[in-house]
Amino acid sequence: MGWFFNREKQEEKDRQDASQFRKVMQTYQKYAEFPYINPDESLLNERIQQLATGAIPFVEPAVMERNQDGYLLGELILLDWLQGKSSEINDFPDYFELKLGINAAETVMPLLDDDCLDILEDEGALYFRPLEELNDLAEEYGLERKATYDELIASFKADFTSDFLADLIGRGVYVPMEYGQQLLTKYQADIEAFQIKHQL
């Protein structure tokens, strides 16, 4: 009897899961592009359930329509967000999936390939780190604190070995290339409107 009850319960859950899956698929199939949903098995069922029950909202249809330059809004917001971030970053905010419908980690390479984004790997990368943090490092190694980045980086170059500087810079930081900056300027109003609306 208990086995039969458990089987019925499982079958009901399977029907409910299938119904929720259909609801999400039917909604997103109407979009210009299908929003990204993390396929990780430990997250997928939960995400489908959250969407189907209204626990989290669907990605807005307009977000999945490409602009006249061929980019999704999420791709441009990612381009903007990446400025000054370490090129080793692999932790991205959930809103890229939940609100913008993109896989942020897999979108970085296309932005690099399109010459929207570059990796700054010389001392210029240090300008993207907090001045206070760099001054603390200078003090730690017996150097004087400086009022500007130029003075502080000049001090580093004079007193640190090239190997130490390379370690300090790491694998560089992301910076928009000229084309990427043009896109950010062109679509600034759209980017800011979305960020304000969703409090990003």
Give a short summary of the structure.
With 200 residues, the protein is mainly alpha-helical. The chain contains 10 helices and 2 strands; from the N terminus they run αααααβαααβαα.
Largest sheet properties:
2 strands, antiparallel
**Widest β-sheet, arrangement of strands:** 1-2
Count every beta strand, where a strand is a DSSP E run of 2 or more residues. 2
Compute the gyration radius: what is it?
A: 23 Å
Helix content: 55-70%
Q: Between the first and last Cα atoms, what is the distance in angstroms?
A: 52 Å
Mean pLDDT level:
90
Q: What's the order of the H and E elements?
A: HHHHHEHHHEHH
- Name the overall outline: elongated
Low-pLDDT segments, ≥5 res: none
**Class based on secondary structure composition and strand pairing:** mainly alpha
Tell me the number of helical segments per DSSP (H or I, 4 or more residues long): 10
User: In what range is the share of β-strand residues?
Assistant: under 5%
Topology:
Blueprint: H1 2-28, H2 41-53, H3 73-82, H4 95-98, H5 104-113, E1 117-120, H6 131-140, H7 149-159, H8 162-169, E2 173-176, H9 178-186, H10 188-198
Antiparallel strand pairs: 1-2
Description:
The structure is a single chain. The protein is mostly helical and 200 residues long. The protein has ten helices and two strands, in the order H-H-H-H-H-E-H-H-H-E-H-H. A two-stranded antiparallel ribbon has the order 1-2. The relative contact order is 0.12.
